[in-house]
Design brief:
Length: 278
């Protein structure tokens, strides 16, 4: 049969128009890339210096050696500071993660008078200058007799780390459908069982991210630790600060490289756990 007269003939496809480049967006992208390079560049200078054969900070290194890593592990002051940081950072991470998760759950899943004030108080360590917080903590801990104790360092670092856990866990809770918890409760599960079996697995990436931030905050805290530490109880960050003021050698670069590698490994593990949970 002949085709009907006047049948519609498909129009030829037109080539897509070239995408115009927005000068403002391109300039913003270049600015962000420049800021990122400015922030990351010191790391790529510190790492080679940690393997330097020179007796002082020199870049580029004249040769390669592991002497500064050996110097770190053979120095009792550095080892004691590392042990102190570990004994403080681990309990701090556990406490900050537990308290921050509970606070985020209360603030997101319920409404009560004063919730805004409580949230502001929890976020205060992110807003108040650290030197002011350090002076306040020193005054209170001196009255309580916590200066130069592991308990004092753990409590202070926990107060500084809780806001990071609250922020990350709150962001995860906002993405979880609350009807899943309600369904579990309707099937007879208690609040604790519903949280453990339903909510916690869904927000686990946020909890782990908050724990990572808490751990890094404890290892990196200098100002508050300077106020409440002593010669017998001195974290690694304070020991690094004291060493820099006295004599600078590449041992500082070796410690910084190890801390950077440790943080990078933890970050990669959290990313892998996020992907598996998704």
């Amino acid at each position: 049969m002949n085709r009907a007269v006047g049948a519609a003939v498909p129009a030829p496809e037109r080539p897509p128009l070239a995408r115009k480049i927005d000068p403002g967006r391109a300039l913003l992208t270049l600015f962000c890339v420049g800021v990122g390079i400015f922030l990351i560049l010191p790391i790529f200078i510190v790492i080679p210096i940690s393997f330097s054969s020179a007796q002082f900070l020199q870049f580029p290194p004249p040769g390669w050696s592991l002497q500064w890593y050996q110097s770190f592990f053979s120095n009792h002051a550095w080892i004691n500071a590392l042990k102190t940081s570990a004994l403080v950072a681990v309990p701090t991470t556990i406490l900050a993660t537990a308290l921050g998760t509970a606070a985020a759950l209360a603030l997101i899943r319920s409404t009560f008078p004063g919730s805004g004030l409580i949230n502001a108080v929890l976020m205060a360590p992110l807003i108040v200058p650290v030197i002011i917080a350090a002076c306040g903590i020193f005054a209170v801990f001196r009255f309580w007799g916590l200066i130069g104790t592991y308990s004092g360092l753990i409590l202070a670092h926990t107060a500084l780390a809780i806001p990071f856990v609250v922020v990350t866990v709150s962001a995860s809770l906002r993405t979880v459908d609350r009807r899943l918890e309600q369904a579990a409760r309707g099937l007879g599960a208690s609040s604790l069982v519903a949280f453990r079996r339903i909510t916690l697995p869904l927000i686990l990436p946020g909890v782990l991210s908050g724990a990572l931030f808490a751990l890094v905050t404890s290892l990196d805290e200098v100002i508050v630790s300077l106020f409440i530490s002593t010669a017998q109880v001195r974290p690694l960050a304070v020991q690094m600060w004291s060493d820099v003021r006295g004599a600078i050698d590449p041992t500082i670069a070796a410690i910084s490289t190890m801390l950077f590698g440790f943080s990078l490994v933890l970050l990669l593990l959290v990313s892998l756990l996020r992907r598996s949970s998704r």
